[in-house]
Amino acid sequence: MPDAQGDSLKRLRILLVSHLYPENDKDRSTTRALHNFVRNWESQCEVLVIRAVHISLKRPFAHPWFSRGSVEGVPVSSVIVISMLKARVLFPLGPLVLLAWKRFKPDVIVAHMKPNYRWAGWLARFLGKPFVAGIHGSDILASVPGFQAAIKHADLIACRSPSIAKRFKEFCPQWVERVFIANSGIEASEILPESAFRAKAGLWQGRTRFITVSKLLPGKNHDLVLRGLGQLRHLDWDYVIIGDGPLQSSLAELVKALGLEQRVVFRGWLSRAEALEEMERSQVFLMPSAPETFGLAYLEAMAKACLVVCAEGWGVDGIIRDGVDGFTVKPTGLSELTCLLSRLLSLSPEQKVELLVRVRVLVASLTEEAVALRYLDEIRSVAQRPRVLASRRCPEAKVVGR
Length: 402
Fold this sequence. Notes:
nine-stranded mixed β-sheet; Rossmann fold; 15 helices; six-stranded parallel β-sheet; 17 strands; about 40% helix
């Protein structure tokens, strides 16, 4: 006899709208962060993805108006969206309404990133369905008036990290009660067993290997890390930098000026598998990056038994607890960073074990499945509760239940 609760969950239909979604299995041009949520939701509900392709009439475009694909079996409909903001028009909406209403009949509409909020919210109001807005770092940095207008009808607001949630609450205190955290997760199979964490702590003697894996960009603060390490030449450490980017030559010159050529190694771009292997051979992951939406690299480093250092107020700050299962530092604080690096280089064997065991407990709670199901619980809650809606055609409020 089928489980009644499971049968109920499968009836939930989610329409996800975003341009941050791959077009098909071969598409590697965009992140798969949202897809990682969806593929874990599918065991409990049905999901249709509308991949918005935003274009301007000022430039020619070759993308078809409408196309269908799939990513690991998840149906993806790519739709051209022409934004004419002065006229407050988004085209085409007719086919989207037909697709969503006649064919899929969603229970909830979820939209990620600012360009999609306005028309996804309009679609939700047209269909009389709940609307969930997913907020990313660049959304917070966008113009506040336009940003607030785009999400004012959202029933829930999914912030992609605690730091984004904090900034959102400062910008929009009137909507604090709608906010929840929807951070990314790590594949469970990539997390080393606890025995490996303890073994790594036991082998962490003598030289400490620091590592950073990121694009060589100004906000990543590689120069700050190099200057901090430059003040600790008398201590035993190596530093591996993985990634490429526009700052590569200037960072190499800085290494030379600091006299660190024998201590710092630039590995350039590596595959993800190779980067994870390098993390497993290191003890401390350094990336005081700001601004930083979340930073999956922090989770990858924790999964490979590294202590992580992030920028205070950015990235995984709020996921990790400073001094408990990770470390935070001001992104412009050279003296503070230098003190922290000195402290890490002088940890006792007992402290290393305690810290890495806590890191293992934390990263085990941040698997892709775990974070996706927490996100789904929030979506399910808004789909099930009565809501107050105001129709554009009929402005008086009405209570709607499922």
